[in-house]
Design a protein that fits this description.
Layout (H helix, E strand, L loop, with lengths): L3 H25 L12 H20 L1 H5 L8 H26 L5 H9 L17 H18 L8 H29 L3 H20 L11 H6 L7 H19 L9 E3 L4 E3 L5 H11 L3 H14 L1 H21 L1
Antiparallel strand pairs: 1-2
Helix pairs in contact: 2-4, 4-7, 6-7, 6-8, 6-10, 7-8
The chain binds Phenylacetyl coenzyme A (FAQ).
The site of Phenylacetyl coenzyme A has 30 residues, from helix 2, helix 6 and helix 9.
């Protein structure tokens, strides 16, 4: 005869199977999984990993462009850049909130970022050497971000998908401001044109790396696509991005730094040169040009903001107490 514990285990297993079937059916039917729904532990862990990395990228990504706020060439450009950098902070906040719905606190995620246990996008470990880099980031980095993120609006996890809708609208605006900035430089003096070209030369390859390793080396793609977290593979999105950029570069009057870039009539898309995956791996290991600076500045900003967090919690606590006393 089965013991009570064995009977309980069996019942639990039956429930577990039913939950799993309901989850699989919801994913297959393109329904959204919501925070209170049952989900496999590995699905939850994958989402926390991706959403946290995404959130960290948004807030670390504020640094390269913020570097130019005090040196923007006009009041108009300064106001636009400040608004853009603030938008990136906002994106970080929506994404940390989305991660919190999975049961992981923001403090824990930030601690993992600060101690190198979670990643942020490789792209933000490159320096912004000239004003044209602000344009190149808008055009290429925000452009790559949109290409990658529009499909995430259809991600199977509701809070992440909904956060992405607003983020993508703002990223589209960012991409246009970068394009407009580069166009002004490209059509400006020969020095300005050369500065724009130099920025595109430096940002092109790192932007292609943003999409992640090639499909045959992407550890998570197959499972994430089966769960409909990711809708397309890394290489698919990278190719889409190249096809979008080529005509835009022509309109800008700038060239993309790839002698192997050419249209393939048969495939109906552009072919492009080999990406330096050794460089990508090195940046991920922490050896990019700015990895150390980015994390040091982030930790410092976090420490310097401690009093704001304390004041905000004290204020919230006071209001909760007042509300409780009134009730
Ligand atoms: N950098 O198996 P996969 C922005 C890691 S936001 C660093 O292919 P997955 C806005 C990957 O995490 C930019 N690490 O991984 C803005 C994994 O490591 P793990 C950020 C990378 O997750 C603009 C390992 O390699 N966007 O730009 C990178 O299926 C301007 C194996 O890779 C997002 O986060 C990389 N580039 O696919 C802000 C979008 N690529 O975790 C300011 C959401 C891969 O095992 C200014 N994320 N790795 O230790 C995604 O779509 C996916 O996570 C991918 C990677 C496509 C990034």
């Amino acid at each position: 005869m089965a013991t009570a514990a064995q009977a309980y285990d069996r019942e639990d297993a039956v429930d577990q199977d039913a939950y799993e079937r309901a989850f699989d059916a919801a994913v297959a039917a393109d329904e959204r999984i919501e925070p209170r729904d049952w989900m496999p532990d590995a699905y939850r862990a994958t989402l926390v990993r991706q959403i946290a990395q995404h959130a960290h990228s948004e807030i670390i990504g504020m640094q390269p462009e913020a570097n130019w706020i005090t040196r923007a060439p006009s009041l108009r450009r300064k106001a636009i850049l400040m608004a853009k950098v603030q938008d990136e902070a906002g994106h970080g906040l929506y994404l940390y909130s989305a991660a919190e719905t999975l049961g992981t606190g923001r403090d824990e995620l930030l601690d993992k970022l600060h101690t190198g246990r979670q990643k942020y996008s490789s792209i933000f470990n490159y320096p912004t050497l000239t004003w044209a880099d602000v344009g190149a980031i808008g055009w290429l980095v925000d452009g790559a971000a949109i290409t990658n993120q529009v499909p995430l609006c259809r991600c199977s996890y509701g809070p992440y998908a909904r956060a992405m809708v607003r983020i993508c609208k703002e990223e589209s605006f960012h991409q246009r401001q970068g394009y407009e900035l580069l166009l002004a430089l490209s059509k400006g003096t020969p020095e300005q044109h050369a500065m724009a070209q130099d920025a595109v030369d430096r940002w092109w390859w790192p932007s292609l790396m943003m999409f992640g390793p090639p499909d045959d080396e992407s550890a998570h793609s197959a499972q994430s696509m089966a769960w409909k977290i990711k809708r397309h593979s890394n290489d698919e999105l990278r190719r889409r991005f190249v096809d979008i950029c080529v005509p835009q570069a022509e309109s800008l009057g700038l060239t993309l730094p790839d002698p192997d870039l050419k249209w393939n009539e048969e495939l109906g898309r552009h072919e492009f040169g080999e990406i330096d995956w050794t460089e990508f791996k090195n940046v991920l290991k922490g050896n990019g040009p700015c990895n150390e600076q980015r994390i040091t500045q982030r930790r410092q900003a976090h420490d310097e903001g401690a009093w704001v967090r304390e004041a905000a919690s004290a204020y919230a606590g006071k209001h909760t107490e007042t509300g409780a006393a009134r009730a």
